[in-house]
Structure formats: structure tokens, C-alpha cells
Amino acid sequence: MDKLKQAIIDQGVVVSDQVLKLDALLNHQVDPQLTMEMGRQFADLFRSEHVTRVVTVESSGISIAFATAYELGVPLVFARRKKSLPAESEVLCERVPSFTKGMVTDLLISKEFLKENDRILFIDDIIANGDAARGLIRIVERSGATLIGAGIVVEKCFQPGANALRESGIRLESLAKIASLEGGKIVFAD
Ligand code: 5GP
């Protein structure tokens, strides 16, 4: 995705050796055209897997997951981040550390929207240590549904999340791989 890489170069802000601010294209403002293209890309990568639902975490994953779900013609379900659903027994909940907020948050999905016969594609904006992804995957496992893979817009290769998931047997595809942010410079892995 040359267009994505160019947008990251043009609009990304290196906050530290660990953190890349992508507010202008992912986390605050959304570029609809680029987002739809990314959704098409993920849909093409996973189309043969007969996905029945796309799952993400609110809020930054929603736009990309929406575009992917639209292309695949299936519903999008987003995990909420706090206890905002009434009957707890009807909700699957996992507590995960938040990379950017430095605190723990609860991810929740109503059992109504994850069924045993579902084939789930997980979509998210950025992967760092993989905690959000692991929490979401645990929720999918507990629902009895099948996780067919994960599509991530930006993989920070210098942090362990993406490769740990791959090593556990999960198919993880990312659209941009960042090898380093050292010295304020964005270096892509490919
Ligand atoms: P993880 O759970 O993999 O450690 O972190 C994933 C979540 O933290 C992502 O959904 C993303 O919102 C946020 N995050 C992690 N690293 C970065 C980063 O470098 N920049 C931004 N903007 N968000 C990040």
C-alpha cells in the first residue's frame, strides 16, 4: 500500500522511539478514500475464508473494520471499552492493558453478536505489544466462534505483538510494517 506509506510519511508524527501519532489518518481524522482502499485490501486478503463477521475494538479500529465488513458484505461488531451493557451474563469481557493510555480497560462484546458458527476476522489500526488483539481473540474463543485471521493497518515490528500472534498460529496480515522510529525517523520494514 504505497498510498498508506506515503500518508504515514506525510502525516505521521513520531512521538518517541515507541509511539507514532497517526491522528491525521487513523486516530482522530479519517481519510474515507484511503480507508475504503484499505478495507478492500483486507477483504481481498481474507475473501476465501468465508468470514461471517468482522470484529474490532472501539474507537480507532471502527472505520477500517467498517470498510472491510462493507467489502465482504458482513456485519461489523466492535468491542466496547467499558461496562456499558446491562446484563453481565450476556456479555463476554476481557481486561487488557492499554498501550497508549497506560491503564487497563475492559473489552466487552455481547454474546448476541458472536455465535458459535461465526467465522471472525479481527481488524485493528495498530499493533504494538498485542494486548488488545489477545483480549479480543480470547473473547472470540470464549464465544465458540472461529478466528480466521487478523488484519492490522500498521504493524510496529520492533514490538512483539504481531510476531507473537503469528507464532501462536494466527494468520496476521498488516498493510504497513514499521521497523523503527528511532531518532524521529519512520523506517519501513519492506
Ligand atoms: P497493543 O495492545 O498491541 O499493545 O496496542 C494496540 C493499541 O494501542 C492500538 O489499537 C492502538 O490504538 C494503540 N497504539 C499502540 N501503539 C500505538 C502507536 O504507536 N500510535 C498510536 N496512535 N496508537 C498506538
From TrEMBL:
Positions contributing to xanthine binding: L20, N27, K156
GO cellular component: cytoplasm
SUPFAM superfamilies linked: PRTase-like
Every Phosphoribosyltransferase domain range: 32-156
Top-level division of the source organism's lineage: Bacteria
EC nos: 2.4.2.22
Reaction catalysis annotation: XMP + diphosphate = xanthine + 5-phospho-alpha-D-ribose 1-diphosphate
Subcellular location: Cytoplasm
Binding positions for 5-phospho-alpha-D-ribose 1-diphosphate per the UniProt entry: A128, N129, G130, D131, A132
Any Pfam family: Pribosyltran
Chief location: cytoplasm
CDD domains: PRTases_typeI
An annotated Gene Ontology molecular function: xanthine phosphoribosyltransferase activity
UniProt entry tagged with the keyword Signal: no
Matches recorded under InterPro entries: PRTase-like, PRTase_dom, Pur/Pyrimidine_PRTase, Xanthine_PRibTrfase
A Gene Ontology biological process term: purine ribonucleoside salvage
Keywords, comma-separated and alphabetical: Cytoplasm, Glycosyltransferase, Purine salvage, Transferase
Pathway where this protein functions: Purine metabolism; XMP biosynthesis via salvage pathway; XMP from xanthine: step 1/1
Quaternary structure and partners: Homodimer.
Family as reported in the entry's similarity comment: Belongs to the purine/pyrimidine phosphoribosyltransferase family. Xpt subfamily.
Protein name: Xanthine phosphoribosyltransferase
Gene source species: Paenibacillus apis
